[in-house]
Structure formats: C-alpha cells, structure tokens
Amino acid sequence: MLNIKNIIVPTDFSKLSQSAFEYAKDLAEKMDATLHLVYVLEKTPPFLAMRSLDISEEEVMKSMTEHAIKQLKQTADQIKEDSAVKIIEVLRHGVDYEEIVNYSKEINNDLIVIATHGRTGILHTLLGSVAEKVIRYAKCPVLVITPQEEES
Predict the structure, then answer these.
(1) pTM of this structure
(2) 12 falls within a domain
(3) How high is the pLDDT of residue 76?
C-alpha cells in the first residue's frame, strides 16, 4: 500500500498550473497527506523592470518576493475553500526545476504533481519543460497533469 504523506505541487500561478491542484488536493485528502505549494522566484530580477522604473535590484526582488508570498497565500486559500487539507506555502529562489527537486529531497517527499503544457516539436525544444526536468531529476514519483481543453 502506498503511504503518501507529502505532495509537492509546483505553481507559477497560471491557469495551467492550477490544473494540477484538484488532483493533488484529492490525493492529499484520500491519503491524509500535506500539500506543499511551491513557487520558485528567479534569483535575478527582470532587467527591464529595473531600467524602466529606475529602482535597485534589491527593491525589485523585495517587491517580487512580497507579491509571490501574497499570491501563494491566495492560492492556498483557494485550494482550502472546500477542503481541510493541510497546505504548506513554500517560496524558493533559484532555477525552477532545481529548487523543486531540491525541496523534494529536503522533505523526503513522496509525490510531485505538476502540470505541463504538453508541447511537442520545435516549441518544446526551444522552451524546454520544467515538468520534463523535474521528472528527470526527482527521486520520487511525478504525476504529470495535462490540462483538458476547455469545451466551448
């Protein structure tokens, strides 16, 4: 029998990443597991923001960090609206897939639930895939969710 106690759900706050939340929440409820909502902020702020607003790198990073913390809380609150699942909000700084994998090792994680664009061909080659890199380097199972196309 599987004994899943910690589930990581990476997010970039996009609608796409939200498609993994329902799966992760359902699993967490059934297994009495804790969800770790992980957002990774790049270490280097956007150059354009610093130039156009004429503010320091520290100010940009502080503002981005505050915004990310606020969004993590809002996202966690949305997930918890109709559930008693325990959620830990995690903000990391660095390269997205590396930080997700490193955090997974740190907490001895049982499962990662991650959404993907499902791109193929040249677009996939040019953009790469966080999900693919997480799959490649994670030491725990990874459940990849491809969002359903919205019905019109």
Answers:
(1) 0.84
(2) yes
(3) 95
